[in-house]
Task: structure prediction
Amino acid sequence: MSTGIRLTQIASSMLAVSLLTAAVPENTRTLIDRILNKTGRYVDEEGAYKFILPREAATVLADDESLSPNIGLNSWFTFSSGVHREAILTGQFLLLADEVNAVLSAGLDNGLEITGLADSTIFAGPRLYAMDFTGVGTFQALATAVRKSLDEIQVVRRKNAGKSTSVPTPTLPKASAISGPPLDATLAMRGVVTGGVYKAAIGRKGLLHGDPIGREMGLTTWLSFAGTDSRALSSGDMLATVDELQDLLKALRMKGMFVTSIRNHTLGEHPQVVFVRFWAEGPALELARSLRFILEVQIGATKLR
Result:
């Protein structure tokens, strides 16, 4: 195929997309502004209404040093009219470490789809996390969901005023002596205890660039328990398909698990999967019961209340 023909096809595709793009009416933009108590910028050629919110707390390195928010130290989100529904939303919250799980819960509770979470710290200073999200529905509902998520940031900041913004971290077990059989029975899994630490894994089958892969090539949910039966640290990676992710995140937060990342390991796999890293502390059997509930929610055997 010649370069000229290829460019013509690309231009035609872009034209088709532009013809499907509907405007966000001015009265709708006024409604969004009122809900958010902020004013966005309308990009007419894309029918997109965008907000960029610098995070002043993220720009401070030390008492006498600061950074420009223009290097990406901001939250952003964009509203657009949909073809199959009234509105679609994409965005990213820039969060201090102690805000992550509170905002994750607020977003999920108000109908946002959380699609990614990563440590995005690149300078000395506060630990920063980028949380990606999308949403579909009405403009009013989506704007309200964003507003409630942003409000949660302020709740955390008031609660933790004058305190460190670092993320909660588990207690490092000095020695481990976890009993494996009770966890096997509760989780309905077969784990292995090595050096007093219990670990179990569940594999899946999938395709990578059309070729089969499975547990030993990384399509795995794994769970570990360290410490003691009465005071254990559980951590792991939970593999989820796109259809499972939101219920998995809701179940993790319902059971008090701290989510530290949401990310992909591969590209070109089928079905598309992401991995959710988590941790929690407590009696080993209580943690195992919570994880069994979460796994059952993920596969649809148990419904969220």
